[in-house]
Design brief:
41% of the residues lie in helices and 26% in strands. The protein is α+β, with helices and mostly antiparallel strands. The model is unreliable at 11-27 and 75-79 (pLDDT under 50). Helix 6 (308-323) packs antiparallel against helix 7 and helix 12 packs antiparallel against helix 13. The strands form 5 sheets. An 8-stranded mixed sheet has the order 6-5-9-3-2-12-15-14, with no helix packed on it.
């Protein structure tokens, strides 16, 4: 967990030869009078970031000079290095620092700095840095070690920590906090104390902005009229992720399973009971049964000896998944555990007949698993042949059917849904239109689902209109306020899918300027925009690098293998390599077309910018105003006529 916290406290010891400092600083009476922490939480295509500013004001109330040693460390709450972009100033001047002496209690680096405080003198320390916050299944945590301020003498006049959010923060988005929040709006949270030391550190656990946007979109879709299995399953998966969150480090009694288990089960059951009007596909049915089985398993574990009915539900859902075509490998361990526990519980309760029945089911399951080994070997041979002829879709389908969907896709790095992303950005006098096409993909249904999800998220952004159909997403952003702010809100609202990285890159730039100037008989306009599409290339390249590295850890294609698992690894290596190439190809084949029609639809400029490029686009145009020319000519003629009359009268 990245604490996103850098604090300044008296160092625990003083360098040799220094004047009294460190732990003696407090005894000499150096006081912390004011400390403020301001952090802005933003999310881009790579991470959730905390841009933090810290201000500390120190006072030496004594009548003699004191030299203090400041210790800068990010390790009070979590083992972490100091941010690489850390900037520190003392009294508005850069603060010279040096590495801290080794400490047997920590194995991460810190910095120290010395400063002389004059009698009754003050010092103003400022820190600024950016840190990425950890994210697990949507859970993001921020922490600041404010209690470290208690190592200074006296009680501070004021302590304050304020978190601001680039995207509005819904109350339901907060999963936990400590201590109580004093002030809360939809974009900021504040903790503050006056005249007293902070007894606790500041913590906040919340759903990452994009994860929350996707969750809200899934919930909206599942509650809409006509919602079907896909919508209920998508929301059930989100609730299941939340139910699997661990307890918070600052709130050990936080029970996310108890909180999100009931809605997860309800949505998954709704996916299976959606009715004949929109029946679930086999894949959706299998996924729902397996998720239910795993949720029931956790509930059974929590109940201990009272969990027999839930182990029965685990077995029921596992068998249902098998009946719908689930790969035996994906269900075998789950069913084995269920029948083993049911056997034990039946024996403990004196139910000999029940124990015998469950032992029989377990034996039958193990026999089926043994006979399936030869079948898996044959299927792997077929997948290897498909890899050899570069038919990766067939190979992936064979692996998914035989070993489960998780075995066919590297965790967190699936192949792209499209082979090319084409974005057209059109700037008009009162609107900006983003038209994204995800082309040539082998999964049209998944592409359409993603684009419809993105359209739903965009529609919740003020001033945005969106429409998705087939492989195209069109978002119209009305220029009712600041364009940069509107684009930032839209970027934060979009789903986190990597296929949308190019759209996110085009939205996150904020250096666009245009000028309209009416002259006597002309209209002059000028357009300047700095575009930077390197973040999209970085996103796709990182996915490709991750897949390549994962493949290199598996057996080489020509390596001798002995087991089914080793042969599966060879097939997966081929799939991961193909997926990495697909992401690199997507980066090479994608581009953005910028069009501007500012003063007249007939006066347009157009540029094509490939992914990975950064450019400055500039256009100027002048248009004559015929009406003004006519009136100017008439005015000139009238003036000449009047002048002629005056001359004639003379």
């Amino acid at each position: 967990m990245a604490s996103s916290a850098v604090t300044s406290v008296p160092a625990p010891s003083s360098p040799a030869g220094s004047t009294p400092a460190g732990s003696k600083a407090a005894s000499r009476g150096v006081e912390l009078r004011v400390q403020t922490v301001d952090a802005l939480i933003v999310q881009d295509a790579t991470a959730v970031w905390a841009d933090t500013q810290v201000w500390i004001r120190l006072l030496n109330p004594a009548t003699q000079t004191v030299t203090i040693t400041l210790s800068l460390s990010a390790a009070h709450l979590a083992r972490a290095d100091l941010p690489s972009d850390l900037q520190a100033t003392l009294d508005e001047k850069p603060l010279p620092t040096h590495p801290a002496a080794s400490d047997p209690n920590q194995d991460w680096p810190g910095l120290t700095a010395e400063h002389v405080l004059a009698p009754r003198g003050t010092a103003s320390l400022r820190l600024s840095y950016r840190q990425a916050l950890s994210e697990t299944a949507g859970l993001t945590q921020f922490a600041y070690p404010l209690s470290a301020a208690s190592r200074w003498a006296g009680a501070p006049e004021s302590l304050r920590v304020t978190l601001k959010f680039a995207a509005p923060l819904a109350r339901e988005q907060i999963l936990g906090h400590s201590p109580p929040i004093q002030k809360q709006t939809d974009t900021a949270l504040t903790w503050e104390w006056e005249g007293q030391p902070a007894s606790r550190d500041v913590w906040l656990a919340f759903m990452a902005p994009r994860w929350w946007a996707d969750f809200a979109a899934a919930r909206s879709a599942a509650t809409a009229a006509g919602a079907g299995p896909a919508e209920h399953l998508a929301l059930g998966e989100r609730y299941a992720q939340l139910a699997g969150l661990p307890a918070l480090p600052f709130q050990s009694d936080a029970d996310f399973f108890a909180r999100y288990y009931p809605p997860a089960v309800a949505e998954l059951q709704a996916a299976l009971a959606a009715g004949d009007r929109r029946p679930a596909t086999a894949g959706q049915t299998v996924a729902a049964h397996l998720l239910l089985a795993n949720l029931y398993r956790r509930q059974a574990d929590r109940l201990g000896r009272a969990g027999e009915s839930f182990w029965q539900l685990v077995a029921t859902e596992g068998q249902a998944a098998l009946a719908q075509g689930a790969a035996a490998a994906a269900v075998r361990d789950l069913l084995s555990e269920a029948y083993t526990r049911l056997t034990e519980l039946a024996q403990a309760s004196g139910d000999a007949a029940g124990a015998t029945e469950y032992r029989g089911r377990l034996a039958a399951l193990q026999a089926v698993s043994s006979s399936a080994a030869d079948s898996r070997t044959a299927r792997l041979a077929q997948a290897g042949q498909a890899i050899a002829r570069r038919d990766f879709d067939v190979a992936r389908q064979i692996i998914a059917e035989t070993f489960g969907a998780d075995a066919a896709v590297f965790p967190g790095s699936r192949p792209p849904l499209a082979n090319q992303a084409l974005l057209i950005v059109t700037t008009e006098p009162h609107a900006r239109v983003f038209s994204l096409t995800l082309a040539d993909g082998g999964q049209p249904a998944a592409v359409e689902a993603l684009l419809r999800q993105a359209a739903g998220a965009a529609m919740r952004v003020p001033g945005a209109q969106a429409l998705a159909a087939a492989d195209r997403l069109t978002i119209t952003l009305l220029m009712e306020g600041g364009l940069a702010e509107a684009q930032a809100r839209l970027a934060a609202a979009l789903p986190t899918a990597p296929e949308l990285a190019l759209l996110s890159a085009a939205l996150t730039q904020d250096k666009t300027a245009w000028q309209n100037e009416d002259r006597v008989v002309q209209t002059f306009w000028r357009y300047v925009e700095q575009v930077d599409l390197r973040s999209a290339e970085s996103t796709w390249q990182q996915l490709a690098d991750r897949l390549t590295a994962a493949g290199l850890r598996l057996p080489a294609p020509d390596a001798p293998v002995q087991t089914v698992e080793e042969r599966l690894g060879q097939i997966q290596r081929g799939l991961w390599s193909a997926d990495a190439s697909a992401w690199r190809s997507l980066a090479a084949e994608s581009r953005v077309t910028y069009r501007v029609a500012w003063c007249d639809p007939d006066v347009t400029r157009e540029w094509q910018v490939p992914v990975g490029s950064a450019r400055v686009l500039t256009a100027e145009a002048t248009r004559w105003l015929p009406e003004r020319l006519k009136w100017l000519a008439l005015g000139g003629a009238a003036f000449l006529l009047l002048l002629a009359l005056l001359v004639w009268r003379r």
